[in-house]
Amino acid sequence: MDYYPINLNVTGRPCLVVGGGGVGTRKVQGLLECGARITLVSPKATPVLAELARSGEITWKCRPYCSTDMEGQFLVMGATDDDVLNRQVHADALDRKVLCNIADRPSLCQFILPAVVRRGDLLISVSTSGQSPAMAKRLRRRLQVQFGDEYAAALALMGAVRSQLLAEEHAPEAHKGIFEHLIDAGIVDLVRADRRDEIQALLLAVMTADQAAAYSSPNCT
Hints:
The protein is an alpha/beta fold. It folds into 2 domains: 1-113, Rossmann fold (3-Layer(aba) Sandwich), CATH 3.40.50.720; 150-219. It has 9 helices and 7 strands; from the N terminus they run βαβαββαβββαααααα. The protein has helices at residues 22-33, 47-54, 83-96, 133-146, 150-166, 176-184, 187-192, 196-206, 209-213, and strands at residues 14-18, 37-41, 59-61, 75-78, 99-102, 115-119, 122-126. Strand 1, helix 1 (22-33) and strand 2 form a beta-alpha-beta unit.
């Protein structure tokens, strides 16, 4: 199947997870990382999920799933080992036009979840279109080694520079060369090595002194 790659904004959106086992725990944790408002429906839940409910981070309906649980949801994730229940969740989602993912059932999914590497604002996703999750996880581990926390710091710096430049009266395209130069000059390597004087010198080479002053060495990493 050909999937259309997309990054979905779930911040503040109501999301439903059906199933409180290990798979459901991972689904809930992934959604929480992205700021979703989560309702868990399951007669039982792992200690992790129970604690999230006690702390108010998620809402836990400690009972079997009902079709009415789908009302008002943005997306739903089915994480049970009950095929009949999974199919009901999928059918209810289709009826209500709710995005649906059923764990390990690609035929019951409107979207699948890639293996993900996060480094601050850097998001790298790997998908095998459902053919081999094990391969996707293996590639993710390689990427985790290749792309370290220095990418998060470098992106934060470049994002701050971009915000300041965009606040000035210039067309965004006028700044394209600045960021290409920062990348070509090895900004990531400089951040990794914590070479703050060289970072400051690099900023001075592409910005005015006043602009670069906003990113003095203590704030560079």
